[in-house]
Amino acid sequence: MRDFRTLPDGPLRLVNLHAPACLAGQEGDLVRIELTLDGPTLSDARVPEVDMDGAMVFPAFVDMHTHLDKGHIWPRAANPDGTFMGALTTVGEDRAANWSAEDVRARMDFALRCAYAHGTRAIRTHLDSIPPQDDISWPVFDEIRAEWAGRIELQAACLVGIENVTADGAYLHTAEFVSRYNGVLGAVAYPVPDLDEKLDIVFRIAAERGLDVDFHADETQDPDSACLRAIAEAKLRHSFDGRVVVGHCCSLARQSDDEAERTLDLVAEAGLNIVSLPLCNLYLQDRHAGRTPRSRGVTLVHEMADRGIPAAFASDNTRDPFYAYGDLDMMEVLRQATRIAHLDHSRADWPCAVTTTPAEACGFTPATLAPRQPADLVICNARSWTELFARPQSDRIVIRGGQRIDRTLPDYRELDHLMEPA
């Protein structure tokens, strides 16, 4: 592939590109396409051609489940044992001690610069919203969303444990923030005795305010955790017509086939959108000291896809106690999801799971590789899937608005002044 920096100025038609057929409106696996860069949207104008020598092209990525407010705290708040409870406790302590507006803003902006350099155009982040953090993080998010407009489209969903969901009080206060800042109502669902009543409150508040809903659910290896099923039943019970996303759903893979299939039938009937977080769940799930993990932590994405349930993949946490690594790089997410969940030797439309599927699930601006769509592209030197996934594609080209961007990543040293524990 020719280096884009050597290409002539002005409109260009990039020929001899490879694209996933599902993103080019065609049948099959990889297909050859041509794309014209002539301003901020893809064009069909007749302009000078450049042979791209079979390079692979994707529309810019959509990362529908992240935690920008937690990101990059690992140097001051490392997980002591790599477990879920270790993460939960450590984050709670760090949040209480350090999450000022300045701290949250600096780490969010750092994370967004990483995502932008890697080729992401839209992100939904969860915001820890236990008081008083909601009063701090939501106004900061609103400011950052305005600053990043035109580069990364941003959404935020509130995050509280399901036991904190009430029809009044603190949760209603948070819901008012969500409404004010055009956010998404959310909660972490796990088996509590009054789960159905709590879910009813979430759906009722969301319906009253015209909000979409986003849950964490069943992030556990316990096969008795069946919150996904309860969420599907609650959506049907309320005839809720907003978008509903459910993330993780790890326990589904630990249940009997009959039980899992009953849940999936309900999920399909309810029209839920599912997002799997393979990097974080591989890190946390089935971790026991001195014992090799048996489970990969991913949910039943193949069975979902077979039922027409929209299933996507996303980054989740980055460099915090829930996941020590990561960089909001959706190419890495796709590569690792392919390995962890055996997406290869499977359907040909899995590239949609990091592009069009999450865009539709969240209501982001859609993007494909069709004319008059945004000229927001990721072009890799690889010419085939084996070449693509064999290397990290660190030399990829990212084009936004028809122009190549500077892909220089921010230096971790920028955050050093924040990393001394309080």
From TrEMBL:
Its EC number is 3.5.4.1. CDD domains: Bact_CD. The keyword Lipid metabolism does not apply. Keywords: Hydrolase, Metal-binding. The keyword Amino-acid biosynthesis does not apply. Signal peptide: none annotated. Residues 49-97, 196-403 form the Amidohydrolase domain. It holds the Pfam family Amidohydro_3. It comes from the Bacteria. It is an enzyme of class 3 (hydrolase). One of its GO terms (molecular function) is isoguanine deaminase activity. One of its GO terms (biological process) is cytosine catabolic process. PANTHER family: CYTOSINE DEAMINASE. This is Cytosine deaminase. The lineage of its organism: Bacteria, Pseudomonadati, Pseudomonadota, Alphaproteobacteria, Rhodobacterales.
